[in-house]
Design goal:
By secondary structure, the chain is α/β, with parallel strands linked by helices. It contains 17 helices and 17 strands. The strands form 4 sheets. It has an 8-stranded parallel β-barrel, surrounded by 9 helices. The longest helix is centred in the C-terminal third of the chain and has 19 residues.
């Protein structure tokens, strides 16, 4: 394996990725993602199958009018339907009409598919592949041949699978891509078959792995270590069934672990942002536990781990997080030690220099007791900051709620309504107010903000971004303790708070009160209620 070789990245997010369950992209969505992938440094962008639907046809029509930094747009399709109709085949001609410099077509390399799916013997299937590739090459296209089901076909009949690759090469294919279409191949099988192909052919060899066995990234890396220099995958591993090889995992392994150069250099520090951007456009929840780019990838919870990381992060981190645009996080929970508290205080720019004695111990003990009761501070860092500052004497609540009532009515026409009435004391002055909402939590939130906005106009921009309820003990039925996590935003920053109670309204109320107190604390409001 030559150390001088470079790896070409071929992104199939806009084609194979859109076949994943729950993924639906408009033409504008696809163009936005394509532009970001181009800026990131991907070499080839597979935009879709122009012969299959009008949306992909529109994508290619608009893409060819755009300026691309370095990426080549690629159209995808299959070999012709019949040997006799290659030049008139609507699929192949749709590929040509897309006017992309690169086209990728797949052909059957598993005898089972050729014989049962297409009704062709080895000789006929071979001719179909060669003539289909040759037609596109003669029209001036670079052809990437996807050897569909190659590894299954190779295990069934190495002779048949290799013959199909010879046909593609004879037709003028620029790159032979070995596809684990069913996603069930193991790394040692990938290595063996890939080595046979590399020993036999002298054109670039690529890998296209699916993740049905959880091996897509491992199989991709194995193929590259064996000698493949063309890598296909999708951002975040989106794709049909269990998805494709995850490029946000593969790319940093190629660069940081294998030390390989890419044909088109990528800005690796933008990897996390790139992954999150794709999740956002696809309207999918980010995978917090994704390697390299997940929110939890460099998160530390155990006190022993945190103590070690503070001394030398290499003890529990396999790379420097900033290399992939991520950041180290320390979580505060019932597993915390004093190191967690000191780390979080430093992160929050809270000076503990004068409180290193008993304060960290007191906070650790308080957190352990609260989490034993159901609270969760690793997902509610705003509530944790309020606790820490209150223990230090630098925070006390900006308001007191002296009385609250909620009435919920259920109309027969289905239009249910909740009314909340509050008595709030701010700086010695009492404010009575009421508000209605679509539910008790909404009504309480509106009433509280209505009461406080006269004193604190800054709260007028705060609104709930997310609201989660979890039953902590299902054995008690409707009396079960519940935990409520609330994410709030002022349009610029977001923060999370927590409440726990047997009463879901009370738990929500705790989180709401913390949320507004946190906003006021961060706004540097003078608190006349501050205990001296």
């Amino acid at each position: 394996m030559s150390e001088q070789r470079t790896i070409e990245l071929f992104d199939s997010t806009l084609r194979d990725g859109t076949q994943g369950e729950g993924v639906n992209l408009s033409v504008d969505d696809k163009l936005h993602i394509a532009q970001r992938l181009d800026e990131f440094g991907i070499g080839v962008l597979e935009g879709g199958w122009p012969g299959s639907n009008p949306r992909d046809q529109e994508f290619f029509a608009r893409a060819k009018k755009m300026t691309w930094k370095q990426a080549k747009i690629c159209a995808f399709g299959s070999t012709a339907r019949t040997i006799a109709g290659v030049t008139s085949d609507p699929n192949l001609n749709a590929l040509l009409k897309a006017e992309t410099e690169v086209v990728s077509i797949f052909g059957k390399t598993w005898r089972l598919h050729a014989e049962k799916g297409l009704g062709l013997n080895a000789s006929q299937n071979s001719e179909l592949i060669e003539r289909s590739v040759a037609y596109l090459v003669q029209e001036g296209r670079r052809v990437v041949f996807d050897a569909e089901h190659f590894f299954d076909g190779y295990k069934d009949s190495p002779e048949f699978a290799m013959e199909m690759l010879r046909a593609a090469q004879a037709g003028g294919a620029d790159t032979l891509v070995l596809c684990d279409t069913n996603g069930g191949t193991l790394p040692h099988e990938v290595a063996q078959a890939t080595q046979h192909v590399l020993d036999t052919f002298h054109v670039p060899v690529g890998i296209h792995a699916h993740n049905d066995g959880g091996m897509a990234a491992a199989n991709t890396i194995t193929a590259v270590q064996t000698g493949a220099n063309h890598v296909q995958g999708t951002m975040n591993g989106v794709g049909e069934r269990c998805g494709n090889a995850n490029l946000s995992t593969v790319i940093p392994n190629l660069i940081l672990k294998l030390g390989l150069d890419l044909k088109h250099p990528v800005d690796l520090t933008q990897l996390t942002k790139m992954a999150n951007y794709v999740f956002e456009i696809m309207n999918l929840h980010p995978d917090d536990r994704a390697p390299f780019v997940g929110k939890s990838a460099f998160a530390h919870k155990g006190g022993i781990h945190v103590s070690a990381v503070m001394k030398d992060s290499r003890m529990y981190e396999h790379i420097v997080p900033t290399d992939v645009g991520a950041k180290q996080r320390v979580l505060v929970s019932d597993l915390s030690g004093q190191s967690n508290i000191r780390y979080k205080a430093e992160e929050l720019e809270i000076n503990l220099q004068n409180a290193r004695g008993e304060l960290p111990k007191q906070v650790v003990q308080h957190i352990k007791e609260m989490e034993h009761g159901g609270y969760q501070y690793e997902a509610a860092e705003a509530s944790f900051e309020l606790i820490l500052k209150e223990k230090m004497g630098s925070f006390s609540p900006f308001f007191e709620v002296e009385d609250s009532r909620v009435i919920v009515s259920y109309a027969r026409d289905g239009h249910n309504l909740a009314d909340a009435m509050l008595k709030v004391r701010v700086n010695g002055e009492v404010e009575h107010t009421a508000a209605d909402g679509v539910g008790p939590v909404n009504a309480l939130n509106k009433a509280l903000q209505k009461a406080l906005t006269r004193f604190y106009p800054q709260l007028s921009v705060v609104h709930l971004k997310d609201y989660k309820v979890r039953v902590l003990d299902g054995t008690n039925g409707t009396k079960a303790v519940v935990r409520v996590l609330i994410e709030s935003t002022d349009g610029e920053q977001s923060w999370s708070t927590v409440g726990v109670s047997e009463n879901i309204i009370e738990a929500s109320w705790q989180a709401l009160v913390d949320s507004l107190n946190y906003k006021l604390m961060k706004s540097n409001i003078s608190n006349k209620n501050m205990k001296k």
